[in-house]
């Protein structure tokens, strides 16, 4: 089900000791120093989607498959709790996937979790040439003490190449992470929003 697929985007250099994922990349590619981490912005992810679908504006990076996994079975992907998806981290850092677009729905196979859209989609403009949008989803899961689904701290950001959400057949990129006040993804998102307000 899971096919390895990833691309390089913006690299960040962390001062703390690198984790095993970063070390794995450094060992595979000796030209990369310890502490280098894949940390793409919304615009970077839109660029990677454009390259993945063969848009002439964006050139596909040869190492992209090492960072963004390609999911063949999108229905199983969205019905599986992130804790059980290979490669998904639980330390507040994001994991990235290419897959076909999906609309949220209640799982048909009695799987006790589903993604629900929260808020409206946000437009992304890249260099005035590529336009796209981002949708945000929250994971709802059944709790042992309650028969009803409750919102969890898991978030999924889905990136579309078009500026409006279209069909379920288009290729998109998703970022999955466990949100908290100390989450690296949440802090980066807040910083980005503040910089937009100041500009």
From TrEMBL:
Keywords: DNA-binding, Nucleus, Transcription, Transcription regulation. One of its GO terms (molecular function) is DNA binding. Pfam families: NAM. It comes from the Eukaryota. InterPro entries: NAC-dom, NAC_dom_sf, SOG1-like. PANTHER family: NAC DOMAIN-CONTAINING PROTEIN (PTHR31079:SF23), NAC DOMAIN-CONTAINING PROTEIN 73 (PTHR31079). This is NAC domain-containing protein 8. It comes from Zea mays. The lineage of its organism: Eukaryota, Viridiplantae, Streptophyta, Embryophyta, Tracheophyta.
